[in-house]
Design brief:
Neurolysin, domain 3, binds zinc ion, two-stranded antiparallel sheet, glycoprotein, mainly alpha, binds L-captopril, 24 helices, two-stranded parallel ribbon, hydrolase
Length: 609
């Protein structure tokens, strides 16, 4: 990703990849001046990096100020810098086309391509339109960040409050109230979202793209349509497993809530899965767990018993990376990060990781809850920070992950090593449950990881259709639910009002953060884990492997991280795993014993929706 310091904040600039855009190159050849040389191209790239680089720090600072203290002034500052940065980056993207027919070295070509294909919200040339686009972006982000649900005048809940309740409460009426309540945040976003789509499509078209969808799909070192097919292929690999999990979960939810609330031949109502968006289901393990008693370590409980506070949780995560040979985080990380929700002011609680100076001003921003879920999320965020630090010696334009899925996968890969063995080693568990408990452990994790896969896919399937015009503003919500049903087998628990805009109630939609990255990350992290376990010499089953303490694994990982996006992601993947393809057999193999168990449970059940 060029020019992007955060993983989810500075939304104007995308994670970049390379696309050899054949068509466009030919279109422009005849009108290009003949005199441009390879040297001109190199100088152009240098100048662009420097010019954009200068704006990056103040833009990131303004964005940080806004997200940690939402008010009118910080909103204006964030919009101001976003506009400047987007305009500059879009101009350079446009200008880079003049080198399309110039013969340049491979490295310069890659940089030019990254420049052209990496914008998330390309700005239209018209300054009024570009200012409007930036303003909408910051407004949408602020609406989400400041969102809450008020039951009545004196009883309001933040999203964090509601997420906690969705995780633990089992009264379906309360769950429905919270589910519907949070979704009141988004109807006011709908018109803005439609306007933003038009403006950004215009920006994409001015860059020679059909629409923004082509731009988003086109940053993966392959043709946009080929990439979409690659996603279908990977989903096809995981789908039978997901269907088995869905079948079991629906049956158990039917037992818990009754078949009038959970009919056994329909999609599952989305409010009962322990998560506001039904995206990961680990929180309802207690509802769907095996009948046979299984010892599964409750990390939330362990953190409580051992008096972990937010800082101690982060320190513990840092020490995992240190055990692999990564340098400790800088003092400024501890001074400047936001670990808890500030009182008395609005802030964006959705977790993110930042590098504000592109060197070592690393920070995370989170409203940490003292539970196992957030313990994993802390590792996720630190994965971003160590990646950012690892590629900080690359030229600005290569300071990004191999593809955006890699960025999202690193911390999760480390989290897969939070096994009972590891927890015992750090004193968070007293004993290591024996193998007869593995099904419990695998089910708990599959509820998070396998359940997530179709959600990770459907969010951008929706956005791509919105950007291409296949889903119109009138169809925003129905189109969303069609995809929720198709991929996840979920449905809205109640008829949705005509003005509902349920996609807007998911952070990444108003924040304009592409979402396919998380789908990819859920495939990639199991590939990385498999390889790193081999390197670490762990001989046990891969679901019991922890790479904690393995300097060899740390070095292998770091070697890939240091590449940034200087090479196509296929090469980065091959450098670590020995194979240039994304491959879902790693996640399937990891959970294989569970699949056998699920198939047994599902015998005689009617699966599907
Ligand atoms: O947004 C995130 C991270 C920040 S990059 C906390 N995740 C996705 C989500 O919360 O929807 C991690 C998993 C999926
Ligand atoms: Zn992330």
């Amino acid at each position: 990703m060029i020019f992007k310091r955060t993983q989810s904040a500075l939304f104007v600039i995308a994670a970049l990849g390379l696309v050899a855009c054949g068509d466009k190159q030919e279109k422009t050849t005849t009108t290009e001046p003949q005199a441009l040389t390879k040297k001109d191209a190199q100088q152009f790239v240098e100048k662009a990096q420097q010019d954009i680089g200068e704006l990056l720090i103040p833009a990131a600072q303004a964005e940080w100020a806004y997200q940690t203290y939402i008010n009118q002034d910080t909103a204006a500052l964030s919009a101001y810098f976003n506009e400047k940065l987007t305009a500059k980056a879009t101009n350079y993207a446009k200008e880079s086309a003049k080198f399309n027919s110039v013969e340049v070295d491979a490295d310069t070509r890659r940089k030019l391509n990254l420049m052209t294909n990496g914008l998330v919200m390309p700005a239209p040339e018209d300054p009024e339109k570009s200012a409007r686009l930036a303003k909408i972006g910051s407004e949408l982000g602020g609406m989400y960040g400041a969102g809450k649900y008020c039951r009545n005048e004196d009883e309001c809940f933040s999203l964090t409050d509601m997420s906690n309740m969705m995780a633990t409460e089992r009264d379906p009426k309360l769950l429905l109230e919270l589910w519907e309540g949070w979704r009141q945040v988004s109807p006011p976003m709908k018109a803005l979202y439609a306007e933003q789509t038009e403006l950004a499509n215009l920006g994409a078209q001015e860059l020679g793209k059909k629409d923004l969808s082509e731009m988003w799909r086109g940053s993966y070192d392959m043709e946009a349509d080929a990439f979409a097919q690659e996603l279908d292929r990977l989903w096809g690999q995981v789908k039978p497993f997901y269907e088995a999990l869905h079948c079991h979960v629906r049956a158990e939810l039917g037992e818990q809530y009754g078949e009038d609330i959970v009919p056994q031949d329909k999609p599952i109502p989305a409010h009962l899965l322990g998560n506001m968006w039904g995206q990961s289901w680990g929180n309802i393990y207690d509802v769907v767990k095996p009948q046979q008693e299984m010892q599964v370590i409750d990390v939330t409980e362990a953190l409580k018993v051992h008096n972990y506070d937010e800082v101690k949780m982060v320190k513990q995560a840092e020490s995992f990376f240190s055990s692999l040979g990564f340098e400790p985080l800088p003092d400024t990380f501890w001074e400047r990060s936001m670990f808890t929700k500030p009182s008395e002011r609005d802030a964006v609680c959705h977790a993110s990781a930042w590098n504000l100076d592109n060197v070592d001003d690393l920070r995370i921003k989170m409203c940490i809850q003292k539970n196992g879920e957030d313990f994993a999320t802390i590792h996720h965020e630190l994965g971003h920070n160590y990646y950012q630090r690892a590629y900080n010696k690359q030229p600005t334009i290569y300071q990004g992950s191999a593809n955006d899925g890699f960025h999202e996968a690193i911390g999760d890969t480390i989290s897969l090593s939070i096994t009972p063995k590891y927890l015992k080693e750090i004193g968070l568990a007293d004993t290591i449950p024996d193998a007869s408990n593995d099904i419990g452990m695998l089910l708990k994790l599959a509820l998070d990881k396998i359940a997530f896969v179709p959600f990770g896919l459907m969010v951008d399937q929706w956005r791509w259709k919105v950007f291409s015009g296949e889903i119109t503003p009138e169809q925003y919500n129905t189109g969303w639910w069609e995809l929720r049903e198709k991929y996840q087998g979920l449905r809205a628990p109640v008829d949705r009002p005509a003005d509902a805009f349920d996609p807007g109630a998911k952070y990444h939609v108003p924040a304009n953060t592409p979402y396919t990255r998380y789908f990819l990350a859920h495939i990639l992290q199991f590939q990385f884990h498999r390889t790193l376990c081999e390197i670490a010499g762990d001989e046990g089953p891969v679901h019991r492997c922890s790479i904690y303490g393995s300097k060899e694994a740390g070095t292998a990982l770091n070697n890939m991280l240091e590449m940034g996006q200087s090479k196509p992601w296929q090469e980065a993947l091959e450098s670590l795993t020995g194979k240039p393809e994304m491959d879902a057999t790693a996640i399937l193999d990891y959970f294989a014993p569970l699949k056998t168990w699920l198939d047994e449970q599902n015998q005689g059940r009617q699966c599907g929706w």
